[in-house]
Every structure is written in structure tokens, then in C-alpha cells.
Amino acid sequence: MTSEDTRTYDVVVIGAGPVGENVADRTTAAGLSTVIVESELVGGECSYWACEPSKALLRPALLRADAGRVPGLAPAAAGPLDAAAVLAHRDRMAAHWSDDGQVEWLKTAGIDLRRGHGRLDGPRRVAVTTPDGGTVHLRARHAVALCTGSSAALPDLPGLAALRPWTSREATSAPQPPGRLLIVGAGVVATEMATAWQALGTQVTLLARGTRLLPQMEPFAGGLVADRLRGAGSDLRFGVTVATAARTGGEVRIALSDGSRLTADEILFATGRAPRTGDIGLETVGLPPGGWLTTDDTLTVTAAPGDWLYAVGDVNRRALLTHQGKYQARIAGAVIAARACGTPLDTGRWSPHAGTADTAAVPQVVFTDPEVAGVGLTTIEARRTGRRVDVVDYDLGHVAGALQHDPDYRGRARVLIDPDRRTVVGATFAGPGVAELLHSATVAITGEIPVERLWHAVPPFPTISEVWLRLLETYRDQHSRGDRNP
């Protein structure tokens, strides 16, 4: 420490969400003094307004849906959910929006915490505006890691502030179910929140600009989710946008691009994410504020000379997922420690200092009814990039383990196989209970396991994982006939 208001550390991390915490944990474990700066709650978006509370809302909805399809349980699952109990559980999972436990963990890990808004103040320097209005200056000997995440991107709609719309934050922390909810969007937040609030008794209307749900995933996945939402009573409207919107007398009134009008109690805009980089001092190191930060595979910001500035997690737009951000944090922490010790980096494919999974094997689960899980390439991405793949599909309803879930099980599995290397490069599953299939697909892709070896990974009977055997059999039969899907 150099003075009362200027303090020197080996590493300064801005942002104490899961990503920032993991960067700090790795650098501290490597023996580097580390301070983390946070202006809101330690634990970040995931702990209080995203992963944890949203899954607490969704779990009862999915369990009831599963139970309602099992003979002998259906009558018991027919009644409404206890909304108060579900919301109380959600509150517990969000730690009642208190970060005391997370702060205690930082202490036990030996990581210093500085409350306040952190901004770059030149190379390796950070100025923190504290809650009492003061300023603390931090100097980093080796690295500054920007882990500021993303926030909801709202449309440019006249009168938006007066509309008081929900974003993902309000949608996961609302104190009670609204009677009527309009959801604008077709992606993960839109479909998950439609699933959760509809199960709690809300009348949901979902408005999508495009022609299907979950447009970044295989088309069959969004189709199955749409069918189930409609079957549960949601109103899905495709090919529409919001032309005007206003809040009048406690109600939201909107006009759509097709001329129709709707009224609801709340409106949720789930229309994408924007980086939190508008006020973090990027201009002081020659970078334009407000945009996504481009990094190489070591998570080093490519436009900042000197290998001292890192952008980790959502803020670099490589993969906007908590688990992927934590993966990046482990890579970044190892890179920072190696550079601080003068150790040469190993940046080859699947090496300790390269985030290869960000481009080859990003797993994602959408906790809708039915669940959707995917990793690696989709057919859409393969066509867009000109990647040649063999497409193998199988109806999950033909797997004995799936029929244990539901005699009328509806679901589908797809794997993409590189025809030259004969390894799996992509997998998508849609159906009840398929989330647990995803890690095996992720291991197959990251391990680059040849199809011939996968035959020896025997799935237990009767489980849904038996679909792996059925996919391999289908591929064998297609390949022996020279049959290759587009």
C-alpha cells in the first residue's frame, strides 16, 4: 500500500459476479494479491436476478409438468402451484438479495473487496467512487480484469421510461404473479419466463419478431417448446413487433405492427443483452466506451497493448452464459498468473491458457417444458459456415428410458458428426429430462472421441442416455448406405 487513497495490488478485478469471483480466486490461489471492485451485490446477476432465482421459479413448473404425464401421478399434479411457496423458495435461493454470504467467502479466500463504482484511470489504474462519494485509487502491478457483465437491451420505443417495463431482473424478482404478462422476445429469457409465470397462473402472451422460438437452436427445439406453451394456454404471436406502448391506469396498452392491440398488467422485454462498458473508463486507455470488448483466446483485450487488460465473461460476447464465463475466468486466472511469474503460455488447442471451448463446445440448457439442451454446432451454423457434417436424428419417444417419464413422450435428439474425422461436433436434445444428457455430449466433443470409441461407452438401461446407442446405430445404418443428411 502506497498511501491512504492509493493502493497497489498485483491484480484488480472490476465486477464481483461469478466471473470476477473466479478470476480473483484463481489469481489469489496463485499467490497474487487481488482486490475485487463491485458497485452492487457481490455475486452478481446470476445469484440474484438470473440463474438462481429463475431456476427456482422454473423447477416447480417442470416437476408438475413431468408428474402430470406419469400414470398414477397425473391427478395429484392437476392442481395449481402454491405461488406463495414458490416465490418464498425463489427468495431463499436469491439469499433475500443479501450478499453477506458471498462477502464472507471473499474474506475466507483472501480476496479484498472494495465497494463502489470502478473505472479505468489509465493503464493498470482503477479509480473507485465509493458509496460515501470519496475516491480510492487502485494500481495493478500485473493485470486489470474487466468482468462487468451485461444488462438487458431495451428497444428504442417512445415513452419507454413511463412504461416501466420488466427486464430479466424484474421478471425473476417480482413479488407476485401478474394477472396478464406480455413478453417481447423469442429467446431463452422469453421462453423460460413464459414457462415459469404461466405455471404460476399468469396469462402469458408472447410476441416474436421472427417465425419461431429459440432461433439460435435447432428448429425442432423451438417447435416443441411452442407446442407445449400453446397447450398450456399461452398466446404466441409470430412476425410482429411493438409499434406503440403506454401505461395507463396501471395497465400496459400496446399496438402491434399487424394493427392488433393488447392490454396487460406487465410487459417484459427479453430482446437481447448489452455490455456494461459505457462508464468503466475505456476511453482512458484509448478504447471506445459502450461496446463489446474483443479478446483473443487468453481473454486479453486485443486493442490494449501490453498484455495487462483482460475482459472476461459476458462483456467479451464470446458466450453469454455463467458457466462459460467461469470457464473463461479459470483460463484468464491461469494466464495472468503465468505472465506474472514469467512462465511461457501454452495457447494450443485445448491447452491451459486458451479458451477453446468458447468456439468448439459451448453447452446450454433452456429450462422450458420440454427442456432443450445443446452444445457445439447446429445445422444452421454448419450451413452458415460451410462446415460439412453428417446429421443424425432420433425420436426420443422410442427410447425405453424416456417412456418411463411419459408413455406419450415427445422429444428429439440430433448429433452432428464430422465425416472426415468421425467425431461429434454438435448435439441438441429436446424433451423432458434431457438436460442431464448434455454433459456427455460436451465430453464427447471436447474429447474429440471417435465414433468407433463411443460404441464402447455403454449407456445403462432403461435411461434416456440410451439415445446415444440409438444415434450411433442410426449413423451406422446411414453410413453403410452412403446416406448423408444435408
From TrEMBL:
<comment type="similarity">
    <text>Belongs to the class-I pyridine nucleotide-disulfide oxidoreductase family.</text>
</comment>
<dbReference type="InterPro" id="IPR036188">
    <property type="entry name" value="FAD/NAD-bd_sf"/>
</dbReference>
<keyword id="KW-0520">NAD</keyword>
<dbReference type="InterPro" id="IPR004099">
    <property type="entry name" value="Pyr_nucl-diS_OxRdtase_dimer"/>
</dbReference>
<dbReference type="Pfam" id="PF07992">
    <property type="entry name" value="Pyr_redox_2"/>
</dbReference>
<dbReference type="GO" id="GO:0004148">
    <property type="term" value="F:dihydrolipoyl dehydrogenase (NADH) activity"/>
</dbReference>
<dbReference type="InterPro" id="IPR001100">
    <property type="entry name" value="Pyr_nuc-diS_OxRdtase"/>
</dbReference>
<dbReference type="InterPro" id="IPR050151">
    <property type="entry name" value="Class-I_Pyr_Nuc-Dis_Oxidored"/>
</dbReference>
<keyword id="KW-0285">Flavoprotein</keyword>
<dbReference type="InterPro" id="IPR016156">
    <property type="entry name" value="FAD/NAD-linked_Rdtase_dimer_sf"/>
</dbReference>
<feature type="domain" description="FAD/NAD(P)-binding">
    <location>
        <begin position="9"/>
        <end position="324"/>
    </location>
</feature>
<dbReference type="InterPro" id="IPR023753">
    <property type="entry name" value="FAD/NAD-binding_dom"/>
</dbReference>
<keyword id="KW-0560">Oxidoreductase</keyword>
<dbReference type="Pfam" id="PF02852">
    <property type="entry name" value="Pyr_redox_dim"/>
</dbReference>
<keyword id="KW-0274">FAD</keyword>
<protein>
    <submittedName>
        <fullName>Dihydrolipoamide dehydrogenase</fullName>
        <ecNumber>1.8.1.4</ecNumber>
    </submittedName>
</protein>
<feature type="domain" description="Pyridine nucleotide-disulphide oxidoreductase dimerisation">
    <location>
        <begin position="362"/>
        <end position="468"/>
    </location>
</feature>
